[in-house]
Amino acid sequence: FWAQSKIVVLAGTGGNGGGGICAARHLANRHLKVKLCVTSKERLKEVPRWQYQIFRNTSGMDIGPEELKKESPDLILDALIGYSLNGAPTGLPADLISWANEQTCPILSLDVPSGVDASTGETPGVYIKATWTLTLALPKTGLVREKCGQLFLADLGIPAGVYAKCGISYIPPFGNRFWVPLDWA
User: Fold this and answer.
1) CATH number of 2-181
2) Mean pLDDT confidence for 120-143
3) DSSP 8-class letter at 164
């Protein structure tokens, strides 16, 4: 199934978008049919811009928002807005969130569903209705079941000493895995 799947990656201009663009290039390198829609290539921050340059050397396609109307993806990867949400999404990000929610395919959100406050779980405007959320490093306090779908935690390889310096008591749950499912309390 996945070998023939059409995946649309929606990416913003910040760190969350950079992670989405990185995921897009990895998926394209595994010969999946990936289409990447970035909210503003001109406003990409340094790391996302670097990831975008690498993506352009893959078989993945770079598409504009107007081209999404023709798409019927099998999966949407949401990397529009991460933990830096500041008020309700507006403009193109809000339009892309609405488009994604209108599709019939599952949505995988990277770190936090776009439009959901990572600390409080509040949604000041439109937000991605995620099927799955892959949160990174540590779970965010605002991740709630009705907005995140099934929740997974990904290992970013952060050394234990970093957590200790931050005063965080943390026993990594990964074992030999790169990600683990999380249960809702």
Assistant:
1) 3.40.50.10260
2) 96
3) H
pTM of the model: 0.95
Question: Which residues make Cβ contacts (< 8 Å) with residue 29, sequence separation at least 6?
Answer: 58
- Which pLDDT score, from 0 to 100, does residue 1 have? 57
Q: Does the pLDDT at position 142 exceed 60?
A: yes
Of the pLDDT bands very low, low, confident and very high (cuts 50, 70, 90), residue 3 is: confident
- The pLDDT, as a whole number, for residue 72 is 94
Half-sphere exposure of 88 (CA within 13 A, CB side): 8
For 92, phi then psi, to 5°, come to: -60, -45
Is the distance from CB of 101 to CB of 133 less than 8 angstroms?
A: no
Q: How many CB atoms lie within 10 A of CB 3?
A: 8
Amino acid 7: pLDDT: 98
In single-letter form, the type of residue at position 20 comes to G
Distance (Å, rounded) from C-alpha 95 to C-alpha 101?
10
The three-class DSSP label of residue 5 is coil
Helix (H, G, I), strand (E, B) or coil at 42: helix
Task: Report the greatest alpha carbon distance in the chain.
Answer: 49
Rounded CA-CA distance 157/102 in Å is: 35
**Domain ranges across the chain:** 2-181
Please state, in angstroms and rounded to a whole number, the distance separating the CA atoms of residues 27 and 46: 22
pLDDT at 11 over 70: yes
